[in-house]
Amino acid sequence: MADIIVQLAKQSGFYLITWKEIIMICIGLLLIYLAIYKQSEPLLLLPIGFGCILTNLPLSGLMSSHPVGLFYFLYKYGVSTEIFPLLIFMGVGAMTDFGPLIANPWTILLGAAAQFGVFLALIVSLLLGFSLKQSASIAIIGGADGPTSIYTAVKLAPQLLGAIAVAAYTYMSLVPIIQPPIMKWVTTKKERSVVMEQLRPVSKLEKILFPIVVTIIISLLFPAVAPLIGMLMLGNLFRESGVVERLAHTAANELINITTILLATTVGGTMRAESFLTLQTLEIIGLGIIAFGGSTLGGVLLGKLYYYLSGGKINPLIGSAGVSAVPMAARVSQKVGQEENPGNFLLMHAMGPNVAGVIGTAVVAGIMISMLAH
């Protein structure tokens, strides 16, 4: 009887679990704690954390590297084919109002300036010894766009997917903490107090033409980014057309929610102890803050230039919204502006560079993929 009990114990996960897997389970619990009690990107960190726990349970058969595991098939057919990130991009488009960008097209340059952190992180990653493909994947974290970060990592550095996704979504959730000190550091009280003129009304025709024209122009200029931009703009066209409310509602709600569950849980499933508990992971986490901070700085500095060129009519704080954490970054611009002037309303002005950042990050990712994927 004792031999049977010993044999059963040796076949259990308790006997086979390693200290590294225990650490990864603790990391999964930490992500769940941040999601529930700190409300840090809960829609993403909660399934990522639980996926991390599942994949590190011995004998579970769920790991993405196991040819019969659940995560293996989700990764193979949903992530490696880029279907999940693209469906999420369609949902983002269906939820996003591009009106502020159309009303102030010059704000697209603020979205471009906010890519400064991407290139800064690219250089630092290369100096740390990462390959060019790995460095490009890590650098996209600076765009604060989770689906684009995942899309790029799958194309260029799938072995780093777990660490890159966790870093990207963690820093997205920390936007209200990371950005304000940088914004205040490079701006004056007078600049932060600027009240901007009300945006002009944008016609329905403009909103319908925008996704169509942008898709054609950007896809012709940068073919590699056509899937990302195409799905983003398709979702937006659903929203603005006014004739497919059911499709727009589904893309912005049921479809994106289901896809988020599958994508985030699968990303957590890639966080195996042997691949995640490395020096590279710590370096990626550190590079993420460099990328994100650099992107915030780049956007605000161009905002300052706009402030001087406009004779003090443009508030430089809206430049920080050039990172594509929609709409959180725009809300941070609003909050910091109201701290200096309670009557200031920057939210809609900040939404221009905010949605421009989504397009800008996708374009930069497409350029890197087209140059390095082969």
Short description:
By secondary structure, this protein is mainly alpha-helical. The chain has helices spanning 2-10, 13-16, 19-37, 42-55, 70-79, 83-95, 99-103, 108-113, 116-127, 132-139, 146-156, 161-173, 175-185, 189-192, 204-221, 226-241, 245-269, 273-276, 279-309, 328-340, 347-372.
Summarize the SSE layout with pairings.
Elements: H1 2-10, H2 13-16, H3 19-37, H4 42-55, H5 70-79, H6 83-95, H7 99-103, H8 108-113, H9 116-127, H10 132-139, H11 146-156, H12 161-173, H13 175-185, H14 189-192, H15 204-221, H16 226-241, H17 245-269, H18 273-276, H19 279-309, H20 328-340, H21 347-372
Helix pairs in contact: 3-4, 4-17, 5-17, 6-11, 6-16, 6-17, 9-10, 9-19, 10-11, 11-12, 11-21, 12-19, 13-19, 13-20, 15-16, 16-17, 20-21
